[in-house]
Every structure is written in C-alpha cells, then in structure tokens.
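Researcher: Structure for this, please.
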Amino acid sequence: MQRARPWLIKQFSTKTNLVKTNLVTHYFSLLNSSPNPTILRHLHARLLRTSLYNNVILSSKLVLMYSKHHRLNPDSLSVFFHMPQRNIFSWNIILGEFSRSGFPDRSIELFILMRRDSDIRPDEFTLPLVLRACAGFGAVELGVLLHGLCVKMGLDMSLFVASALVSFYVACCRIFHAQVLFDEMPQKMQFCGLPCWLGMLNMENPC
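Model: Predicted structure, token format:
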C-alpha cells in the first residue's frame, strides 16, 4: 500500500476540480497506465467507492488491465461477473483474453453463457474470437455451428469473420471448406485479408 500511495497522489494531485466526464477519461488513463497489480487494485477500490464503477467503459478497462497484469483468473473474471452492466465490448474483452491466454475452453464456456443468459448479440469481432478458441480447443462441431450462426446473422460477409472461418477450417484440417470460403472471399488482397493468405499458404501440409 505504501508503494502505491506516491503514484496515486501524483496522479490525483492536479485533478481536484474535474467534472464527471473528465473523471471518466482520467480514470481510463490511470487504468491504462497502472504499472502493477497493487496500484490497479487501489484504482479498483476507488471506482467501487464512486458511481464511476457503473461506467461500463471503466469496468471493462479494469477487466482488461487485470489480464494484462497476469491476473485474468480470478481478478478479471471476478470484475467481469460483478459488473453492474455489460455490453458486447465487455464480452469481447473477456472472450479474447481467455482465448489469447491459453484457455480456449473457458472462452467457449463464456460465449455459451453470453448466448444463454443475455440478449447481447455477437458482432463481427466476437465470432472470430470464439472461432479461434474452437480451433485451439479442437471444438470442430461447435465451430461449424458458429459458421451457421455467422451466415444466419449476415456476418459471413465481413472480411474479419470470413478470415477467421478460413483459419478455423485450416486449423481443423477441413481443407475443402477452407478453400471454398477462401475462393468466395471478396477483396482477398486487402491487408485485413492477409491472415487468410498466410493460412492458405500452409494448406499443403496443414496437419
């Protein structure tokens, strides 16, 4: 606590007359620059003592920063489940962090929870995160179901989603499906389609 206090005093000493809108921006900056988990917990405590914790942007940022400080489980997950409200941005953060941190099964579980217990619709950023988790966990059948969901929602036309689908099928050795999707993709030479090209280059020896 003593080590955290000088940093906090310095950050707040010139911010005594901030209006609420500026406070949100200020706290967001503090969370983003927090140098260690101890200071992050102090900022967390300050948010809990104010109505600012109800701000979905700040609470989502808190989830992300705990993960960046290698406190994904339990800290990030605990903050996420105690958030007063969540939006698709919040869900994408927690899904992505678990997927990137080597816990694809947890990412899949959370996605199923989102679909079952909330009315939040996945977007073109959600589905690539979950497809990546499916590939990492070997959940081929679920990935195929997600492909159907992409088509149903009209998100298969997004280059982000199409790229993720191609990568998923390549990773799961479903080369025919990957080739069909790749051939149907528009604007394959655009930068955001580069992962698809890299995936297709590896298709000669995918497994």
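Researcher: Any notable elements?
Model: The CA atoms of residues 175 and 204 lie 9 Å apart. Residues 20-33 form the longest helix (14 residues).
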